[in-house]
Design brief:
Layout (H helix, E strand, L loop, with lengths): L2 H20 L6 E5 L3 H16 L4 E5 L5 H7 L4 E6 H14 L2 E6 L5 E7 H6 L6 H6 L13 E5 L8 H7 L4 E5 L3 H12 L6 E6 L3 H4 L2 E3 L33 E6 L2 H4 L1 H9 L4 H12 L5 H11 L1 H9 L4
Parallel strand pairs: 1-2, 6-7, 6-8
Antiparallel strand pairs: 3-10, 4-10, 5-8, 5-9
Helix pairs in contact: 1-13, 1-14, 2-12, 2-13
């Protein structure tokens, strides 16, 4: 722990902590941790804010799809990164059952889809059109995929439906799931040395867009119902025959009991809103600068006192 960073961030909320904690339960606020860097750092940032307000916090490693059921039941208290493309269906299903609610949007706008670094476009100049990508499928073939192109999708629990899209659009690709976000970055990094064409799952905001300029593949435009109704999208017999939303939301979700049990912390949660650059910076501190998530959170708080202060001071009393 960097003592100077901790003291600086703690000073920020010292005047608010007593008042903020007065109405909050002494039970721990349970914050879930998933398997990508921005979520881990962001969750630690928020947890440290709650601790500095006088609350107790626990972190639990939780599946990124099942977490919404856990929030709904009160087993965890909140979720800081509800990505529309990856987790919208699980979030909406839990919302319909009751027990959790929308705690507000971040300022960040998200996109999650097939992506390639710019050197790939040099080899396949028809990009970003998905039909051009399919025509260039042979450029992505490996020993693992034979004469088909290799698309490296996210971890299985992210449920990106890459296989369903390949089938729905009759693409000449084989979908391979990465074991982690780090495996995606390793794939891009290894392809960079000899400018080997590569297409992987990627998302924004994250640090990768600053390290490797690239583009998302343009699939048929997302239409509401593309994941539920075969009649929606270009293939009338299949689901997932369109791209993900290009301007997706990034929400916060909270257990319904949070606002009464920890009113000050809940007030701060509803105020918190991160931007694309802020989230990308958090990811970079771990993925590029190789900081531990807790240390990255402390450093981010220390450098962003002016951003954080209004989230807390409005929750006094």
């Amino acid at each position: 722990m960097k003592l100077t960073a901790f003291l600086s961030a703690a000073t920020l909320v010292a005047s608010a902590s007593t008042a903020a904690h007065a109405g909050d339960s002494s039970d721990p606020i349970v914050i879930p941790i998933h398997n990508w860097s921005s979520q881990i750092v962001m969750s630690n940032v928020v947890g440290q804010i709650f601790e500095q307000m006088g609350n107790h916090v626990e972190y639990v490693t939780t599946d990124s799809q099942a977490v919404y059921e856990s929030v709904r039941l009160g087993d965890v208290t909140l979720e800081m990164e509800v990505w529309e493309g990856a987790f919208g269906a699980s979030y909406r299903a839990a919302l319909e059952k009751g027990g959790l609610h929308d705690a507000g949007d971040h300022d960040a706008v998200t996109r999650e889809d097939w992506w390639y670094p710019m050197w790939t476009k040099d080899a396949c100049p028809g990009l970003p059109d998905w039909k051009a990508l399919n025509d260039c499928a042979h450029l992505f073939a490996t020993a693992e995929t034979g004469d088909k192109g290799r698309y490296l999708d996210g971890p299985v629990d992210w449920l990106k439906h890459g296989k369903e899209r390949v089938e729905a659009l009759d693409m000449n690709f084989t979908v391979i799931n990465a074991g982690s976000a780090a495996a995606l970055w390793a794939e891009i990094g290894s392809a960079e040395a000899d400018k080997r064409p590569v297409v992987v799952f990627n998302w924004t905001p994250n640090f990768a867009e600053a390290v490797w300029p690239g583009e998302f593949v343009d699939f048929p435009v997302w239409e509401e119902g593309c994941d539920k109704d075969p009649a929606v999208g270009p293939n009338p017999d299949a689901l997932y025959d369109c791209g993900n939303p290009t301007s997706g939301y990034l929400k916060k979700a909270a257990w319904d009991g949070m606002r009464d049990k920890w009113p000050a912390a809940y007030c701060a949660l509803t105020n918190i809103s991160f931007t694309n650059p802020q989230i990308a910076e958090m990811a970079k501190m771990v993925d590029t600068d190789e900081m531990e998530p807790e240390e990255a959170a402390e450093e981010w708080l220390s450098a962003n006192q002016a951003v954080v202060e209004p989230w807390i001071t409005s929750c006094k009393g």
